Amino acid sequence: MHERLSFYIKRNSVIHHLNPLTKLTLVLALILIAFTSPWYWTPHLLVLIAIIPLSFLGKVAPEFFKTALRLILPAAGFLFLMQAFFQPVGETVIFKFYFLDMTQESLMFAFRNATRVIVMVSAFTFLLLTTHPSELMSDLTRRGLPGQFAYVIISTLQILPQMQAKAQTIISAQRSRGLDTESSFIRRMGSLTPLIGPLVFGSLAEVEERAIAIEARGFTSKKVKTSLHEIPDPSSDKLIRWVLIILVIISIALKLWLS
Amino acid sequence: MLEKIKNNFNTQTWVLIPIAIAINIAIGQLVLVLKLPVFLDSIGTVLVAVLCGPWAGALTGALSNTIWGIAIDPSAFPWWPVAAMIGYMAGRMAQWGFFKSWWKVVVTGFVVAITAAIVSTPIAVYLFGGITASGSSFITAYLLQTGQGIWSAVVSTSFLTEPVDKITTAMLAFAIVQGLPRRTIGGYPKPEQVEVEGGEGEGGANNTQMYIAIGVVVLLVLFAAFMLRNILGG
Amino acid sequence: MAFINLQNVTYKYPLTKTPVLQNINLQINEGEFVAVIGPNGAGKSTLCYTLAGFVPHFFKGEISGTVEVAGMESSKSTLDEWVLNVGLAFQNPFNQISGAKYTVFEEIAFGLENTGVPRDEMKTRVEEALKLTDISNLADRSPYSLSGGQQQRVALTSILVMQPKLLVLDEPTSQMDPIGTREVFGVIRKMAEDGMTVVMVEHKVEWIANFADRVIALKDGQILLEGKPSEVLTSDVLAENGFGISRYTSTAREAKKQGLWKKENLPVTLDEAVEGFSNW
């Protein structure tokens, strides 16, 4: 149960050797282009010509598709259906279901929104599969991100699975004592308090000691921090980042120009 | 300004934030399991906001949704500005003394809910055309079909769903803070914000507040259930 | 002048009425290994926090008297300066894991990164520290996946690697087995011989008798007794004040009443007891 919340797969690929900031820039660029591009087909094209090939290049394609199927498609699929049916735009009715109309316009709208979400999530999945969180954080810290941010991100990723495990234990314990998740609102609401109490108070009681422990190791030290890991940032990486930034600017410019 | 932001953050703040994010996510998921008609995914955010200040609260909210979106449920990600605003507003209300008795906490919850509704509306409209992947979008869809405009449909939905959730959240956060030992609270940047009015907040008084909090929560849930049935049934 | 110098130190936590430390006067020399014993609520942990600078800089509250450690004076310095000279490790190992690192190696380097130690030096120091406490085999493991005793070793190593002049330890071996405890006491003894000053709160009196230079017995925030382990740990005053004492001492004390223990001094350890009883 104490598995850490990290998607990272250690492999030896071109993508793994890129500087973490380059990969982060890539992800943000893909998302910005997906959301700013004036054409409804851009997001899904990005998935097909960029994100999927990149996952093969990074030798994480099997894991990428597994995560995509488990995580991304259900959310995006639900969003697509909701929007296709409930979006009251357009005239060309394709399909009728009681009072709900699916029009050609709502279908396109739904397609664009769902694929945008797919770009956003699959791009991040790609980043997390090929980049160790601590590598990303130490690179960002080296570039001036306050060390406390890195602490918060990594610490959350390690605490969360423990907390989820605790929540799971509590639910099981309550169930064995007759907690009924199928009963009335009020009964379920009432059962919430004994569930939340032990989950929260235990971890809040630790805060003071944990703060002392990291302060004893110079957490608030005013000295310039150093880093155990050396993260290379060759000029090819800098070039890639500039190209990505220019692509984003072009996308935004096109959007403004065409609208 | 910068000083005001900085005084929200001491080492205990930095240690509390990850725990608060984990509380947000763990309880949010617990609520899903119990199939309750609320989210309760910002209890941790409110805790940080009232103990450390609005900026720490805002950061907790923003990071919560980012991490939730990246690691668990992608549809949570675009809502980070809402979560940040919830933290900021809860912190401001606490600063104004609205976290010192249960009825004031209800007011805080309500104000936070309205803020959340306002911030979430443009995101829902621009990003999703009003229909999100959340269950409450059925209400929006219904209102749209009855001929309401998109903005008013989204805002009405938020005003219907947010207050119950945020008042419950604020009450639970209040109950938690009152249950913490006073020495533990002393180490956070703003311990004075959560000192209960009327002096002795020990033992019996805490329990009474806790019961009242739970009572109000139950009433609000009934109210929401009633409203929902009216809308969906009518 | 003494390396540690406490003069009339009285301290109260915020929002409390009774002081936890009362009129503490204490001098400790460089390279001394001092053990602190006392019942629950005696102020042992607060004394540790005071020596490590957390009282009053972290806890706030009211302090009077003077606290001087390694040439720094508490009222004139900050916690930042203090932690560069004084290392603190305490009982609960789980709460001492930073949470910011994925492996034991990185975890131990955390303090060195924060205090700006250059990369090459950092690596050498971490490797040496891992060897010193015999946990090189854990270097690539996640700190969260370790046993309590192993986590305590990591916590201790994380502090030792920072090479403090004063090492303050609050029950650092509570979750270790006897073999682990012996090894860790051996390491700490060696650090003291190499010039590090050590103040350690510990319940295991037999270990204190074998390794410490001096014992301080605290009760109700005051120093009750102070002196060589063999004298303090066998004193009647301890037994009368509810301190945990060695079973060999209490057995020999009973034996002495019956005339069965002939030696002047009571034993603390098994070896001393065996020797005393067999020479009879």
What does this structure look like?
- By secondary structure, chain A is mostly helical.
- Chain A is 71% helix and 3% strand.
- Chain A folds into 2 domains: 14-131 and 230-258, no CATH class; 147-215, no CATH class.
- Chain A has helices spanning 14-17, 20-36, 42-57, 61-86, 104-130, 133-142, 147-176, 185-190, 192-205, 207-215, 235-258; strands at residues 93-97, 100-103.
- Chain A has a two-stranded antiparallel ribbon with strand order 1-2.
- The relative contact order of chain A is 0.15.
- Chain B has 234 residues and is mainly α.
- Helices cover 74% and strands 0% of the residues of chain B.
- Chain B contains 10 helices and no strands.
- Chain B has helices spanning 2-6, 11-34, 43-52, 54-71, 80-95, 102-128, 137-145, 150-179, 182-186, 204-233.
- In chain B, helix 3 (43-52) packs across helix 5 (80-95), helix 4 (54-71) packs antiparallel against helix 5 and helix 6 packs antiparallel against helix 8.
- Chain C is globular and about 65 Å long.
- In chain C, the strands form 2 sheets. Chain C has a 6-stranded mixed β-sheet, sandwiched between helices. In chain C, strands 2-1-4-5 form a 4-stranded antiparallel β-sheet, with helices on one face.
- Chains in contact: A-B, A-C, B-C.
- Chains A and B meet through helix 4, helix 5, helix 7, helix 8 and helix 9 of A and helix 2, helix 4, helix 7, helix 8 and helix 10 of B.
